Amino acid sequence: MILNGKKRQVLSQISEIEKFIKQDGNDITISVLCRNTTAESAKLAKATDSLMPILRTSLVINWKESAMKSRYDHFRKEFPQISTLSDLKRVIDRTDPLKFCKEYLNINANSSAPDRNPKYCLLKELTNGFLEYQKVHSLSSEIEAIRHWSARVELDDLKKDSIGKRHGVGPGVVQNIRLNLGERVIKPDRHVIGVMKEFLQVDIPFDRYNEFAKLIGKDLRYLDCILFEYGKAKKISAGANCEAGDTGH
Q1: pTM
Q2: Per-residue pLDDT band at 249 (split at 50, 70, 90)
Q3: CA neighbours closer than 13 Å in the CB half-sphere of residue 244
Q4: What is the DSSP letter of 243?
Q5: Residue 84, phi-psi category: left (phi > 0), alpha (psi -120 to 50), beta (remainder)
Q6: Tell me: the pLDDT tens digits for 150-160?
Q7: CA-to-CA distance for 234 and 244, rounded, in angstroms?
Q8: Closest by alpha carbon to 194, among 182, 183, 202?
Q9: Which residues pair with 28 in a beta bridge?
Q10: Residue 190 confidence (pLDDT) above 60
Q11: Phi first, then psi: what are they for 66, rounded to 5°?
Q12: Domain boundaries along the sequence of the chain
């Protein structure tokens, strides 16, 4: 994949990324930030909340992570009675799309076509998709269904996947769900790919990122985090070649 000389160079650049201080009021190095994120993944891997990975993933597309968190926190605070995908489906099915976007998601959707809002559409697709998946596979809980799917989905063959074939679902959406499940994966975010190509000067297909992580001795979740945080801080992006809207983790 890369020669020994290039590997030494990449490790030196990775060290530079890790020492970079993210100045967002906390002045924390990216390495510390991402070690904390990696530790949090262990907790997420044991979580039983089926709504969280789906709601967070749907809210982050085409928007900044900070906006997703604000909307997510608003939803969980204002609507504690909606705690499962089944609860959510009942509300979506009986609520006008414009009202749902404004009241539940805190989104000022286009009044002429609120049902085409990408966050609303993805949330509806994923909710229906996983509830159907649970039923088809006779799984005991919603979170079991999501984890069962995650362990079997193939990124290079999404069109044949029961969730992957749904409108708006691509590699970035799949990996974002997995990250929220606490899995060690790398998401094809524009910042991650941008840092790989432009800063590290490693131009390899996304499906070889796992191999690259092993080669340089980095945990997948940790590598994903440092590349994403550095790309976001330095505004390094792969641009339009990446899946649209995958700007948050």
Answers
A1: 0.89
A2: low
A3: 4
A4: P
A5: beta
A6: 999 999 899 99
A7: 20
A8: 202
A9: 22
A10: yes
A11: -60, -40
A12: 4-43+185-241, 49-180
Share of the chain above pLDDT 90, in %: 83
pLDDT tens column, 50-62: 999 999 999 998 7
Contact 101, 120 (CB under 8 A): yes
Residues in the chain: 249
Tell me whether residue 229 is exposed, middle or buried, using C-beta atoms within 10 angstroms of its C-beta: 0 to 12, 13 to 18, 19 or more. buried
Six-digit token pair at 181? 């499940």
3 state SS of 221: helix
Which three-class secondary structure state does DSSP give residue 21? strand
Average of per-residue pLDDT values in the chain: 92
Torsion of CA 198, 202, 205, 207, to 10 degrees: -110
Helix axes 171-180, 118-136, angle to 10 degrees: 70
The predicted pLDDT at position 26 comes to 76
Residue whose pair of structure tokens reads 């926190």 in the numeric block? 73
